[in-house]
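Input structure tokens:
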């Protein structure tokens, strides 16, 4: 359902991606493209392979088949160049509890061999409203504050693409809403964001494009509005007055496989 985009506008291109663990085929031929500056949300049930896709695209996991281009580089031939233009925030905040928030930021900056990084660290701490707490040990931080530090660290070096693997899992509603604002700010500054989430409301609020991963392939993809209109056209009587929700879309995709097996 996604409209064709110019090759020059694609920052991520995935074609025929396959991944197996022993005899278990997790990804059976995944295809999608992401344009520069988009928020792309990958949805799927637990075990569908969302994190596997993220780990492959962030060069952490080998794959069996497929052609992948990120920032114009081939994933197989030029992984080091890809690592230079991406950043990853996993499901759990990767921060050192025995360091302060600022020290965590400085450590990552040094590992990335950044010069004159202190000013940039100060900007990011301000951006994520962490300045006041920056000199306190991270072990005293709330879950939301730890996630903010983790996301702030991922922005050091100004990556072109940020992979966010279920970034708001476990956060309270207030922290989740604030993180959504931070993610929107990143998009507005031109950063491309690859988001996996268990929260359909999150995808609907943030994503320019949504893709549903089911049974090892992309079951459907498009803007949230396009997916809703498509489902309404198929089940017009059921949604006679209003458009279906993104939850309706997701469940219709996932339940197709279950209905076939009945």
């Amino acid at each position: 359902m996604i409209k064709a985009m110019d090759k020059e506008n694609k920052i991520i291109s995935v074609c025929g991606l396959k991944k197996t663990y022993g005899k278990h085929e997790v990804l059976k031929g995944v295809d999608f493209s992401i344009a520069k500056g988009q928020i792309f949300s990958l949805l799927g049930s637990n075990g569908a392979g969302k994190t596997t896709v993220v780990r492959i695209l962030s060069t952490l996991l080998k794959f069996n088949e497929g052609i992948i281009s990120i920032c114009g580089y081939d994933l197989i031939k030029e992984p080091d160049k890809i690592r230079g233009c991406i950043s990853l925030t996993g499901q759990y905040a990767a921060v050192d509890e025995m360091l302060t928030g600022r020290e965590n930021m400085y450590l990552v900056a040094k590992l990335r061999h950044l010069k004159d990084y202190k000013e940039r660290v100060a900007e990011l701490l301000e951006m994520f409203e962490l300045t006041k707490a920056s000199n306190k040990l991270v072990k005293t931080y709330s879950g939301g504050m730890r996630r903010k530090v983790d996301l702030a660290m991922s922005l050091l070096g100004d990556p072109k693409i940020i992979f966010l693997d279920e970034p708001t899992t476990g956060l309270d509603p207030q922290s989740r809403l604030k993180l959504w604002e931070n993610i929107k700010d990143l998009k507005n500054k031109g950063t491309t964001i690859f988001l996996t989430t268990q929260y359909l409301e999150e995808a609907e609020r943030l994503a320019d494009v949504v893709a549903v991963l089911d049974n090892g392939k992309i079951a459907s993809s498009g803007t949230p509005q396009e997916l809703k209109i498509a489902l309404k056209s198929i089940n017009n009587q059921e949604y006679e007055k209003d458009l279906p929700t993104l939850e309706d879309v997701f469940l219709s995709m996932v339940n197709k496989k279950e209905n076939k097996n009945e």
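DSSP finds nine helices and ten strands in the chain. The longest strand covers residues 10-21.
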